[in-house]
Design brief:
Number of helices: 18
Largest sheet: 6 strands, parallel
CATH architecture of the largest domain: 3-Layer(aba) Sandwich
CATH class of the largest domain: Alpha Beta
Strand content: 15-25%
Strand order of the largest sheet: 1-12-11-10-13-14
Helix content: 40-55%
CATH superfamily of the largest domain: Nitrogenase molybdenum iron protein domain
Shape: globular
Distance between the termini: 36 Å
Length: about 425
């Protein structure tokens, strides 16, 4: 049911939080941008986190690493900038394929006030013509894990060249297969012809940052890109408010928003998406009996919570008890907030003990949460879904609607089989 935006009641909580840090975003960003390298300036804990999250094989050559800060760095006994310059020089000698190097801040580097912005400028000058050096913060002190991508894209947007050419920009890292599917939809709907050019941000090669200017219109593909949205507007680009392309309703509304902004008739969109919608409906029919009527709870973690709650309620028939979101930018989420079910409680921020108390009282059939909470809840007999899996897996668009529903159905199916 649609609700007026001003009528949405949002409870704000401030207390202990339980989230992954922004360094985790490197796991999908380094796969997306094939010529980029992510150098984390942090501790051994940062290195262990990335290796664990990425599941890197021993024989692989990953495009991320950690410049490990030792006790002497933290104590100020060595010149951290000299050490960083030496490591970057050695890295670039070994890896001539690197076209863009990201210096990624962490909790340790921020605690000692290491200025990675100035370091990036210095290293860009030193290696001019060889590599572009950018920086952003992936520190978990103030951020949740998807904000690592937001900070990375914001840094790229600020470094983007100017253009006054007309274009539509799709903002948010998407798997290549999803980009290819969207490309076909932009062609068949007439959106590409009306836009003249469609660019994806981030591009598949970080060296090819699309130019941005006053004739750039952009759609967000990911709901956690608040800083990126603001940075694009500062570059005079125009945001097209839209629901996010999860499930049938979200993807259709997302395409409608682009069509309306570009003067494309909705009838052209409807004709082009009829077959993909039919495939998605057939896929969803398989999982709806398992999901319909089940009660769903979202702990705040990925910032995908609101659009996913909308999808699971509207298209899978689940009852939404609580939607926890780490942060709420009403301009980014304007269209999704209108779709919040009337029975759902929306909570911004987190006081994890209070939230867990409410959860245990209501005992939902499924809880979407971080790994740190999932295992204890499973031990209490509650079914959980790791929120990070919803970021790592292709879930956007019509053709992934069934896969998205399956991610929610799988833990319920497992519990059913174990209880027999």
């Amino acid at each position: 049911m649609s609700t007026a935006l001003d009528d949405i009641a949002v409870t704000v909580e401030r207390g202990q939080r339980e989230v992954f840090c922004g360094l985790t975003g490197i796991v999908w960003l380094h796969r997306k941008m094939q010529d980029a390298f992510f150098l984390v300036v942090g501790s051994r804990t940062c290195a262990h986190l990335l290796q664990s999250a990425a599941g890197v094989m021993i024989f692989s050559e990953p495009r991320f690493a950690t410049a490990i800060m030792q006790e002497k760095d933290l104590a100020g006994l060595s010149d951290a900038n000299e050490e960083l310059d030496r490591i970057v020089h050695r890295l670039l000698e070994r890896r001539p394929d690197i076209a863009t190097l990201f210096l990624v801040g962490s909790c340790p580097s921020e605690v000692i006030k290491l200025d990675l912005g100035r370091a990036a400028q210095r290293l860009s000058t030193a290696h001019q013509g060889r590599v572009r050096v950018l920086n952003y913060s992936g520190s978990g002190i103030e951020t949740t894990f998807t904000e690592g991508e937001d900070a990375c894209l914001e840094a790229m947007i600020k470094a983007a060249p100017y253009t006054d050419e007309k274009q539509l920009m799709i903002v948010g890292a998407l798997p290549d297969i999803v980009e290819d599917q969207f490309d076909r939809l932009f062609d068949s709907t007439g959106i590409r012809a009306a836009a003249l050019k469609v660019n994806y941000f981030p591009p598949r090669r970080a060296a090819h940052i699309p130019a941005i200017g006053p004739n750039t219109q952009f759609l967000l593909a990911q709901p956690f890109l608040n800083a990126s949205r603001r940075a694009l507007i500062e570059k005079s680009a125009t945001h097209i408010p839209a629901m996010f392309p999860f499930g049938i309703n979200g993807t259709r509304a997302w395409l409608y928003a682009a069509a309306d902004a570009l003067g494309v008739e909705r009838s052209s969109v409807d004709h082009a998406i009829a077959a993909p919608i039919a495939r998605a409906q057939k896929a969803l029919e398989h999982y709806r009996p398992m999901l319909e009527g089940k009660r769903l709870w979202f702990m705040p973690d990925s910032q995908l919570e609101l659009p996913l709650a909308r999808f699971m309620h509207q298209e899978c028939g689940m009852e939404i008890l609580e939607v926890g979101v780490p942060y709420l930018d009403r301009k980014t989420m304007s269209e999704e907030l209108k779709m919040v079910p009337e029975t759902a409680r929306v909570v911004e921020g987190q006081d994890v003990d209070k939230q867990l108390d409410r959860l245990r009282i209501e005992a939902p059939d499924l809880t979407v949460c971080g790994l740190g909470i999932a295992n204890p809840l499973e031990g209490e007999g509650l079914s959980t879904k790791w929120s990070i899996e919803l970021v790592f897996t292709p879930v956007h668009g019509f053709d992934q609607a069934g896969d998205l529903a399956e991610l929610f159905a799988r833990p319920l199916s497992r519990k059913q089989k174990l209880s027999v």
